[in-house]
Design goal:
alpha+beta; single chain; endopeptidase fold (from Nostoc punctiforme); 8 helices; protease; 6 strands; about 30% helix; six-stranded antiparallel beta sheet
């Protein structure tokens, strides 16, 4: 049954990717400014701040440290995109960075593709967490699989497979990038370093090499993030970023749709 399920999803993904690839390269879609969506996007619970949970949560501390390189050494993606070592732009795993655009046949919700992304992301709330989850079906996610699947299913945009590769994609193609959370817009992808503790002081004085990208999520606006961090924290969830370790771990963000 699982093999059949994977086959069905694989066919669907191929259709989405092929249609997306036909989109004109000059397609642009502005990210939605931060609006008040608090009524229908409340914080899931307080588990991301409970010391009894996070102090003993190994996946939260490890995060997504190059999951594609570690768990997919056979380069499964090479069947679809190829492994072009001589490409001008490569992600950290050696795959070519190829800019993706929304499938033109998909209508933007309320006039903006970011809302398609948000609605799809919310439909997966509480989906279980699995480190190195199957990239071909959505029964479980790790953080980068979640963001990739959301953009793929919502808009037909095929992003790279892990957090550092998606960060490379943002740096290569996002016209709007920032290190100040105040500049984040609804639908943006945000990147975070590994969990070192719940206090701001745990992250003071760190050098860039001490802050590898290990986590990511989608910004909802109103200071909130939809993401998945570990089994202990309950899979896909919504959290407030400010005044918590997520704020202290924030590295940078950008707009995939800009």
């Amino acid at each position: 049954m699982r093999i059949r399920k994977k086959a069905i999803w694989a066919v669907c993904l191929c259709c989405l990717i092929c249609v997306s690839g036909c989109a004109a390269s000059n397609v642009r879609q502005q990210s939605v400014p931060e609006n008040n969506h608090s009524a229908d996007e409340p914080e899931t619970d307080g588990r991301m701040s409970e010391l009894s949970v996070i102090e003993h949560d190994a996946p939260l501390k490890i995060g997504d440290l190059g999951v594609e390189r570690l768990l997919f050494p056979s380069h499964m993606r090479s069947l679809g995109k190829g492994h072009a070592r001589n490409a001008s732009l490569l992600d950290p795993n050696g795959f070519p960075l190829i800019r993706a655009f929304p499938n033109p046949s998909i209508q933007p919700i309320r006039g903006n593709y970011a809302e398609n992304v948000i609605e799809t992301a919310k439909s997966y709330l509480r989906t279980p967490y699995e480190y190195g989850s199957d990239r071909m079906e959505p029964s479980t996610f790790d953080c980068s699989d979640f963001t990739r699947w959301v953009y793929l299913y919502a808009l037909g945009m095929d992003l790279p497979w892990d957090s550092r590769s998606q960060a490379a994609y943002i740096k290569a193609f996002a016209g709007r990038q920032y290190t100040d959370l105040n500049e984040a817009r609804r639908g943006d992808i945000l990147f975070f370093t590994r969990f070192l503790g719940p206090h701001a002081s745990d992250y003071e004085g760190l050098q860039p090499e001490d802050k590898p990208i290990s986590h990511m999520g989608i910004y909802l606006g109103d200071g909130k993030l939809i993401h998945t961090a570990s089994k202990e924290t309950g899979g896909v969830r919504i959290d407030v970023i400010r005044w918590k370790h997520l704020e202290y771990r924030f590295l940078f963000g950008g707009g995939v749709l800009d």
